[in-house]
Design goal:
- There is one protein chain.
- With 87 residues, the protein is mostly helical.
- Helix content is 78%, strand content 0%.
- The protein has a single domain, classed as MYOD Basic-Helix-Loop-Helix Domain, subunit B (Irregular), CATH 4.10.280.
- Helix 1 packs parallel to helix 2 (39-69).
- The protein is rod-shaped, with a radius of gyration of 22 Å.
- Mean pLDDT is 80; it is low at 1-5.
- One of its GO terms (biological process) is regulation of DNA-templated transcription.
């Protein structure tokens, strides 16, 4: 029974390790992409990256709202809006 449990958990552990490696590959500037790192470190870096992305999205949304709220939108502002939306 315990050998069956070991095999089952080993498979799950392999799946988790593969997912951690895939997640690590998605992180920008991951200097340790080609070597194994602790799963907790990859998860922490992922959380930090998601926080940065959320903050960046909020900043872009604020900039876009300010541009749209201004009464004097010119062609340069329109290009800025297009650039923001294209990101």
């Amino acid at each position: 029974m315990s050998s069956r449990r070991s095999r089952g958990s080993g498979s799950t552990e392999d799946e988790i390790n593969n997912l951690i490696l895939k997640l690590q590959a998605l992180l920008p500037h991951s200097g340790s992409r080609n070597r194994r790192v602790q799963a907790s470190k990859v998860l922490q870096e992922t959380c930090n990256h998601i926080r940065r992305l959320t903050r960046d999205a909020d900043d872009l949304s604020e900039r876009l709202s300010q541009l749209l709220a201004s009464n004097d939108i010119n062609s340069l502002d329109i290009e800025s809006i297009k650039s923001i939306l294209g990101q």
